[in-house]
Amino acid sequence: MMKRLTAAAALLALLPIQSFAEQPAPDPLAFVDPMIGTGPEGHTFPGATAPFGMVQLSPDTDATCQIRDCYDHAAGYSYNDPTIQGFSHTHFSGAGHSDLGDILVMPQVGPVDSVKLDPGDPAKPGSGYRQRFSHDTEKASPGYYAVTLADSGIRAELTAGTRVGVHRYSFPAGKEAHLLLDLRSSLYDYPGKILWSGLHLRPDGTLTGFRETRGWAPGRKLYFAMRFSAPLKSHAFLDRDEKIPYKGFHPPGRGSDALAEKLGKALEARLDFGQLDGPLEVRVALSGVDEVGAVANLDAEGAGFDAVRDRTEGEWRKALGALEIEAPAPMRTNLYTALYHSLLAPSVWSDVDGRYRGPDDQVHTAKDFTFRSTFSLWDTFRAQHPLLTLVQPGKTNSDIVKSLVASRKASPHGILPVWQFHGRETWTMIGYHAVPVIADAYLKGVGDFDANEALDAMVASAEYAPYGGLGDYMKLGYVAIDREPEAASKTVEYAYDDWTIARMAEKMGRKDIADRFYKRAGYWRNSFDAKTGWLRARKADGSFRTPFDPTAINYGSDYTEGNAWQYSWFVPQDQAGLFRILGGDAKTIAKLDAMFDYDISKLDYSHAEDIAGLIGQYIHGNEPSHHVAYLYAYAGAPWRTQERLKQIVDSQYKPTPDGLSGNDDLGQMSAWLVFTSLGFYPVAPGSNQYVIGRPFVDRAVLNLPGGKRFTVETVGLSDANPYVGKVELNGKPLARSWISDAEIRSGGTLRFTMQTKPDAEWGKAAAARPYSLSTARAAP
Question: In whole angstroms, what is the distance from residue 561 CA to residue 68 CA?
Fold first, then answer.
């Protein structure tokens, strides 16, 4: 009997171990909530897309806004809207400007003569093809979105591959099924945006078409190819300028070689399928080249709904698996969603055969890389691109650099992109911030590209005198405000970009270039008024412009989307040099505190759309402030950084639709949170250093190439322990307030021990502080 009990006990003892061993790893997709940021400030979209996908298939809740009221609908979807106008195939994630919303599709039911051709009034149900919906019926996850359209009972499901979007519509039984394809609809929908469009029904039932638009990006061309899982019963192509239906359809078997075509500026297609026995799948591929390219993309990637969804979800699991996160549930959701948002751009823009349309509006071929576009560089050079060097260190970064250089070759001006999408330049924002993206990748040894060609492109961009006051900058040492708006911001941003050129040139042995651009990296001093302690705009005669108000924020003023409070801190390449001008560590810390503690109750910034997420004069909802909390470390007070980071994270992020305090800006707001949660941040991309803050995770693992793993561990993480008591790297105490990129890529463990009270001595010594040009020392 005893023997039997022992055997049974042994068997029972084995069962939990075996069960535990067989437990699958947590699925990162379960922790992503694409609804985060779809509220009024974040400007994200909830629809389906693949990592860096060309297609972003998502619902548009209001695609009829005019120029001045499009801001809240920059991504097409706003969480507070009660209706869905349709499902379109292109969207920005978190941009501060709206465009796209291409190729809008909306399902309908009923007799043919009941099909509605206009979206109607959101306040008047049934007045058009838009339909009401409830968030209770929505489901959103990486690569998948679903909703029930309340007015028709249609269940809409969306998924997407890299160049394809697939719709699946389940129609109520006994109802005739229709699709309306509206080529008139577009985000940022001002009169005359549609320059030309076309529809073409092919003998095999494939519907192809195109449209050319003028909007944020002028002369943008987009082509599509569409196939259906059920045959068309009838259709009509309409030019709403003519208001005459086109009746050129030939049923199969009766003149089926004839093609139905329509050209015009206000085209729609009514597509009729009769009563269906099952769901209707609609497969759509895009191309920036031509309809032939769209068809080829559809042939290559246009599988059925479930196959595309499974493939894309697998791609998302791999991409999100670059980072393993253990944190309290709300923070884990915030972080996996932030990582997801950081992996949406720069999006693929070349076809499966490598062809793409460039900034010269000509067709080019990418032979050894995938051409990418959607570069919001003024935003993303700060954290999103540095994050990609860690979580997408191989082909993605090679593609990015090669795409930037290829764009420069095709640019009519011979310079790198500024703010580009769909291959077209918008000239939005300031700086030449493709430069630090390239330099940061090169200095980290990430990516395979021609460094000399890249450096030539960087120098050409930095020396293109007609751009943004660069002529004066090179001649005077600053941008002159009486000749160029936002001159103070441009001066300091150019100086930072120049420093990254110098860093890359120095590593390449190009001493002549390095020396020239190291000198230019110090030009920020020429716009800094040491007497007042502010960055200020200067006139061509050398005088500072007056009157001067450091709190004033106006478009086209001395600063870009900010004021002197934010921009006076933008010297990431030489914070030590700035702090000396400010009078040393104590005065610098006092001024930083004054920024965060500023009473803004009597200030009105409602006229500035991008000014959101204010903590005093710190504006987390916009990028110029993003590095500022880390600057205490440069003044020998990292514990103050730890305080401010806690304040920012607690107030600016939450796992809800209104969980982003400002535009996500193609992943920059999200990348800030990812880095900050890990306990470090790239204040100066190009330095190969990350400034240590404090972690917000219990444990996280970066899965790096070659099987290497860099682990962040936190002991005692809680609201009661907001300060870092000890930092250890690979088991040894770390006295400095920064960690190098090489140390992370080598793998190992960074351990934080948290405590209730601050350690005012850690990181205080001058030798413990992060890189500054004027006190430069090499990272290990």
Answer: 18
Residue with tokens 């972080």: 335
Task: Indicate the DSSP class of residue 431.
Answer: S
- DSSP 8-state code for residue 734: -
pLDDT at 54 over 90: yes
Distance of CA 112 to the CA centre of its chain: 41
pLDDT in tens, 627-656: 999 999 999 999 999 999 999 999 999 999
Beta carbons within 8 Å of 301's beta carbon, 6+ residues apart: 161, 162, 163, 164, 285, 308, 352
Four-way CATH pick for 29-316: 2.70.98.10, 3.30.300.130, 2.60.40.10, 1.20.120.1200: 2.70.98.10
Cα distance between residue 45 and residue 29, in whole Å: 17
Residue type, 325: I
* Residues 441/474, Cβ–Cβ less than 8 Å: no
Residue 412 preceded by cis peptide, ω within 30: no
Give the separation between CA 624 and CA 111, rounded to whole angstroms: 55
Torsion 577-582-587-591 (CA) sign: negative
Question: What DSSP assignment string belongs to 323-392?
Answer: EEEE--HHHHHHHHHHHHHHTS-SEE-S-TTSEEE-TTS-EEE-SSS--EE-EEHHHHTTTHHHHHHHHS
Q: What's the average model confidence in pLDDT over 523-550?
A: 97
pLDDT digits (tens, 9 = 90+) for 360-404: 999 999 999 999 999 999 999 999 999 999 999 989 999 999 999
Rounded to an integer, the average pLDDT of 695-705 is: 97
Query: CA 629, 436, 99, 485 torsion: positive or negative?
Result: positive
- Topology of the domain comprising 324-350+613-780: GH92 mannosidase fold (3.30.2080)
Q: Where are the domains of the chain?
A: 29-316, 324-350+613-780
Model's pTM, two decimal places? 0.94
**pLDDT tens-digit readout, 169-212:** 999 999 999 999 999 998 876 677 899 999 999 999 999 999 99
Tell me the pLDDT tens digit for each residue of 312-338: 999 999 999 999 999 999 999 999 999
Mean local confidence (pLDDT), 261-272: 96
Both tokens assigned to 142: 């990486």
Whole-angstrom Cα distance, residue 557 to residue 537?
A: 9
Question: Distance between CA atoms of 496 and 498, rounded to whole angstroms?
Answer: 5
Contacting residues for 156 by C-beta, under 8 A, at least 6 apart: 87, 107, 146, 147, 148, 149, 167, 168, 169
Helices (H), 598-706: 638-652, 668-678
pLDDT tens digits, 426-478: 999 999 999 999 999 999 999 899 999 999 999 999 999 999 999 999 999 99
- Among residues 61, 63, 104, 108, which one has the least CA distance to residue 83? 61
Q: What is the pLDDT of residue 243?
A: 59
